Model the fold of this input.
Amino acid sequence: MKKEESPARRRTAHRQAGVLLRRLHDAMTGPLVQPEADTVVENTVAGLDKHLAKAGDHLSTPEAELLRHLVDALPGCGPLPAGWRHGDF
Done:
């Protein structure tokens, strides 16, 4: 039987993952604008409901509405700076 990790261990792992992602973001080099930025925005808008459903009770209604508001604003932001895409990491 698989042992369930404690909340404290999960928080520690989450923080460590965040540190790793920060290092990846800081190490990024390359073009200043993503050539596929429009597709990234379209996929983000289209996938929001799926991600909100997966989040379930981890988000309050106001938090989910804030995410909807922010994602709805993405198409009007213009060219996006280059960045790492790590999906559901």
